[in-house]
């Protein structure tokens, strides 16, 4: 992909590293009626993620936005080359939109901009942890990381991380140089004073795609909890097998980070058809065909799919994570975080598990 033209000084610069982040940038731009938007894709290594990002980049261009694709991890000199090439854009931009405040790349780039208007768009359920840490004044650490996070690389990067956290913290009332901190989210969050929240109700997705054709079957949404070391692989496969048998599921929509070996086992042991989506699931479901019942473990989709599928007859149900499924390496925060993801989901059915069935939740 060739670099996009340099945008004018009054423009907006958005940084994304995943397809979901780019989807939510498009949702934000639609809601904010933002013009002169340049999206910078800090491309990861993972082939599935890269493929979905390229499809999302096409959609962004169709919406009239400029897209700049950066091979940000393409070798030892890539970070220096990427940062050097983006510095002029950073210094001119009036507003920065970012999808992953935990990203070291994004934290480094935040130290190079003078923009006083910063907007964080959803990066899935990680947004809930980000807001909680921001409100408590804690270091920005991903919820599933185990340990102190104080290794040599962490210590070396600490000054940049601290600067980024300060930039994302609202200035005290009456401060001479006020900065605007915004959050564009579909997640249930309680923000600290000074953060302006705009609700993401997936209006762009609903306007652009669908309504979907509904099948009579049941679909299961996959998760990368095994790959992140949170859930034991054998326990997960048994849970999927049990769900498929109980609800007559026929398809399994794989998470982009799920390993090929695990998916092969799932197909063999459950008989499910494994689907590798080429776009975020919100768009796949909205385009259809999709089952009338979608089963998921605690993840972003239990919050986003009911919004994207509003006005259809699709029901979303969530299965709790039993504490016995967690690995010995799982973060001590894992169970509480996953319970919070499930417990705060709206318009989803709770499946029997560690919690009692509750039917449709309203909050």
Any overview of this molecule?
This protein has 363 residues and is α/β, with parallel strands linked by helices. Mean pLDDT is 86; it is low at 1-10 and 354-363. The N and C termini lie far apart (43 Å). The protein is built from 12 helices and 14 strands.
Return the average pLDDT rounded to an integer. 86
Q: Which strand order does the major sheet show?
A: 3-2-1-4-5-6-7
Number of discrete helical segments: 12
The profile of the biggest β sheet is: 7 strands, parallel
Percentage of residues in strands = 15-25%
Poorly predicted segments: 1-10, 354-363
Rg calc: 20 Å
**Secondary-structure element pattern, one letter each:** EHEHEHEHEHHEEHEHEHEHEHEHEE
Q: Let me know the number of strands.
A: 14
Sheet/helix structural class: alpha/beta
Percent in helix: 25-40%
Instruction: State the distance separating the first and last CA atoms.
Output: 43 Å
**Morphology:** globular
Name its key features.
363 residues, alpha/beta, 7-stranded parallel β-sheet, 7-stranded mixed β-sheet, 14 strands, globular, disordered N terminus
